[in-house]
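Quick one:
INPUT:
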């Protein structure tokens, strides 16, 4: 699929801002995925291309944490495997859905995830009570979130972090490191399916990945000056506006059907 140069530059710019927002408040995929849809990219290609740029950022974060010896690879190996498998299962499922179904459900999912970000709990750095055993968490929670990442994606890192904190009782920094590792694994699982299917628009994916990494580096440095309290509401509002545009921009979508009533 060919992308007009103006759309190409615009999508790269969106990835830059998404990386910036993601480093401060999380949820960068809430911007990049609807932007790809609005640009007219085929739904499956949009999912696949977005997954590549998301994978680049998550793998980069894992590499940084690994160099600082903040990830317990041996202890987390079972979670790593099940997260990877969950991502594969989700990507295989999305590959079998009809284009019209994808166009209809994506805006609704975006608004749902944006609502989660708007009302998600503020996590502290204190120990919390463990509510699930490590075995149950690994067997049930990890592949479930991994599957969600493969079939949709935005907010996965936040879901892993909240789950590690509230269900395993981990301190915030531990939860962040583990969530980045598990997010990278399900990203790579889904990406392997999309890569073999040929759905990724590689020039666009590479440009967006590079811009997302640059934006994340800038965002990380600005995090000390701009907290999530400022950036998070802006991210949610922009995401909802993009989702509403998707809902009512196509006569075959749910929004178009509602307008005809």
């Amino acid at each position: 699929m060919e992308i007009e140069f103006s759309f190409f530059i615009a999508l790269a710019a969106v990835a830059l801002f998404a990386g910036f927002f993601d480093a401060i408040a999380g949820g960068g995929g809430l911007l990049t995925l609807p932007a790809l849809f609005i640009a007219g990219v085929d739904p499956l290609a949009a999912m696949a291309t977005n997954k590549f740029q998301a994978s680049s950022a998550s793998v980069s974060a894992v590499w940084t944490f690994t160099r600082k010896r903040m990830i317990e690879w041996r202890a987390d190996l079972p979670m790593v495997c099940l997260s990877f498998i969950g991502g594969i299962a989700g990507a295989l499922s999305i590959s079998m859905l009809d284009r019209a179904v994808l166009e209809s459900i994506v805006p609704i999912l975006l608004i749902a995830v944006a609502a989660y970000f708007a009302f998600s709990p503020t996590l502290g750095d204190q120990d919390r009570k463990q509510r699930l055993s490590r075995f149950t968490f690994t067997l049930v929670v990890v592949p479930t979130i991994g599957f969600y990442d493969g079939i949709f994606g935005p907010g996965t890192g936040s879901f892993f972090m909240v789950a590690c904190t509230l269900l395993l009782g981990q301190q915030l920094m531990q939860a962040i490191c583990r969530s980045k590792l598990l997010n990278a694994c399900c990203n790579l699982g889904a990406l392997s399916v999309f890569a073999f299917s040929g759905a990724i628009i590689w020039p666009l994916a590479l440009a967006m990945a590079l811009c997302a990494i640059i934006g994340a580096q800038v965002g990380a440095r600005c995090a000390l000056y701009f907290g999530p309290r400022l950036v998070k509401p802006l991210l949610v509002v922009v995401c909802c506006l993009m989702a509403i545009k998707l809902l009512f921009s196509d006569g075959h979508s749910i929004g178009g059907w509602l307008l005809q009533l």
